[in-house]
Amino acid sequence: MAKRGNGFGKFVALATIAGAVAAGISYFTKYKSFHKELEENFHDFEDDGNDDISKIDSTMNRSYVSLHANKDELKTAASDIADAAKDAANAAKNMMKDAASIVSDTAREAASAVADTAKDMFDSTMEKENTEEDSDITEDGGLDYSASESGQPACDAAPETTTGSSDDTTTIVEEELQ
Predict the structure, then answer these.
(1) What is the pLDDT of residues 76-133, one digit of tens each?
(2) 105 and 113 Cβ atoms separated by less than 8 Å
(3) How far apart are the first and last CA of the chain?
(4) In sequence order, which residues have a C-beta less than 8 Å from that of residue 136 and are 6 or more positions away?
(5) Predicted TM-score (pTM) of this structure
């Protein structure tokens, strides 16, 4: 077995426990004194406030003033409100027109993008089908030869050329053997 240290670990553990106890006692005494002061301040406030509040309540007599307006002022205010409502309606109408044009432009651009993508996919699919039909390469990667009567591989009379897009495919054409 391994020999333990010379008691340094026990000293550190004892010091930690003593520190925790001292911190607990300190917290408890501060907490107790804080609440004692808070209670005294609360009672001081409670005693002083009653007299001042009763004085304020007794001096508070409100009188209300009614507002009178003549008919001309009411008509002017009503016409101003009507004009503001018309302006708000026109602003809302213009905003809806602008939003509709933005939505229609966005929809038109999206439809154009979808059409272009579909056309590109269709063209690439057609190119793949054309190159697969024209290819002389078999599934195992070799060239497809059909033997002629003389035992020589048959060749096409003219080399094939592809027109259209320029892709990176290579066509192998063999010349006829003599």
Answers:
(1) 889 999 999 999 999 999 999 999 999 999 999 999 999 999 999 988 888 888 776 6
(2) no
(3) 95
(4) 143, 144, 172
(5) 0.32
- Residues 135 and 129: beta-carbon distance below 8 Å: no
Rounded to whole angstroms, how far apart are CA atoms 47 and 110?
A: 76
One-letter amino acid identity for 28?
Answer: F
Instruction: Write down the domain spans for the chain.
Output: 14-44, 72-122
Cβ-contact 130, 149 below 8 angstroms? no
pLDDT per residue as tens digits for the range 21-46:
999 999 999 988 888 888 877 766 65
3-state secondary structure 131-165: HHHHCCECCCCCECCCECCCCCECCCCCCCCCCCC
Contact between residue 164 and residue 127 where contact means Cβ atoms under 8 Å apart? yes
Query: For the chain, what's the residue count?
Result: 178
Q: Are 113 and 106 in contact (CB under 8 A)?
A: no
Distance CA 113, CA 105 (A): 12
